[in-house]
Design a protein that fits this description.
Layout (H helix, E strand, L loop, with lengths): L9 H13 L2 H8 L3 H15 L13 H25 L4 E7 H18 L4 E7 L15 E8 L10 E7 L2 E6 L1 H6 L16 E2 L4 H9 L11 E2 L3 H9 L5 E3 L1 H4 L2 H4 L3 E2 L10 E2 L1 E8 H4 L2 H20 L3
Parallel strand pairs: 1-2, 1-3, 6-7
Antiparallel strand pairs: 3-11, 4-11, 5-8, 5-9, 5-10
Helix pairs in contact: 1-2, 1-3, 1-4, 2-3
């Protein structure tokens, strides 16, 4: 065989592809269900065989050569996987990556019904910490879609090869536990009074700033009762009585109905429920029209429509 066309071991290619998809050695190992040392070894072996550096050791990201190589082999690996699934007559596979709060509080309680109605679709739900993991390296597969929250003040990150639909734009409002409200001496009189209340933040104060700005409240500083990285964790802290968090119907579940949380409503000023962003489903061009994703997309839109009918305005 001509040495120019010698193919690297499939295990090494799979490890490299998993690293490119996930953006990390440990995440690739988790996806492949192997030890992270095995992924590192396969990556080193592949680099040695190719005579090029695929991963920048300083940044942990793909090099330009790594990006180029992956863009060339990804469709081939996907085709190999698809052909193998076809010959085995496997059920269609669909992976949905999704922000944690939406996945846990809204999607998971409904997935059992989806699986009962569509038993031929093998759906894997993968909650993720941030929406940057999807196509973080320009990766495209035809069995992967992503659900993320696009805040209004975030820069557009649309890619030419992605299709998307904004399927929900929920109002955002502050909530707290009854114990927290009692500790504050009751509901605040005005919106500006919230700046003297324990406000729970996510990664930073951007969400609160956007909310105050939407209500025409000028602020120079948002006091923090704690930064907790993600919306669903700030809501967990709010349930524990640690402060006031911003929430929406997709994150609250039955918190308001059960009384675990109550809305913060100033007694002397109207409080307008204002959307600050949208939930978006996105996928590659190849994935968008696949039957499994088309079915899931239609089901998702139907479920959101049903919720909008039953959610009080």
């Amino acid at each position: 065989m001509d040495q120019r066309y010698r193919i690297p071991p499939l295990a090494a290619l799979n490890a490299f592809a998993a690293f490119a998809r996930t953006g990390g050695i440990r995440r690739a190992a988790a996806e492949l269900r192997v030890d992270h040392a095995a992924v590192s070894r396969h990556m080193r072996d592949l680099e040695q065989m190719l005579g090029i550096t695929l991963r920048d050791r300083a940044t942990g990201k793909l090099t330009l050569a790594g990006h180029t190589y992956y863009s060339q082999i990804a469709p081939l690996l996907e085709g190999l996987a698809r052909a193998t699934a076809d010959i085995r007559q496997q059920t269609p596979h669909l992976t949905i990556t999704c922000v944690h709060g939406f996945a846990y509080h809204w999607l998971v309680p409904r997935l059992a019904a989806f699986r009962r109605n569509h038993p031929h679709i093998d759906l894997l739900l993968r909650p993720v910490d941030a929406n940057t993991t999807f196509h973080g390296n320009g990766i495209e597969t035809d069995s992967h879609a992503d659900i993320f929250y696009a805040r209004d003040d975030a820069p557009s990150a649309a890619l030419r090869t992605l299709r998307s639909v904004a399927f929900a734009r929920p109002p955002v409002f502050p909530v707290a536990s009854p114990a927290c409200v009692a500790a504050m001496g009751g509901q605040p009189a005005r919106l500006i009074d919230l700046l003297h209340a324990p406000l729970l933040q996510e990664e930073d104060d951007a969400e609160w700033r956007l909310w105050f700005n939407a209500h025409n409240v000028t602020i120079s500083h948002v006091p923090s009762a704690g930064r907790l990285w993600q919306a669903h964790i700030t809501l967990a802290a709010a349930r524990a009585g640690e402060g006031i968090a911003l929430g929406n119907a997709f994150l609250l579940g039955d918190d308001l109905e059960t009384g675990r949380l109550v809305r913060i409503i100033p007694t002397r000023e109207p409080l307008q429920e204002t959307p600050l962003g949208s939930y978006v489903l996105r996928a590659s061009d190849r994935a968008w029209e696949k039957q499994s994703l088309s079915i899931f997309r239609a089901w998702l839109l139907e479920q959101v429509a049903i919720q909008s009918v039953h959610t009080p305005s």
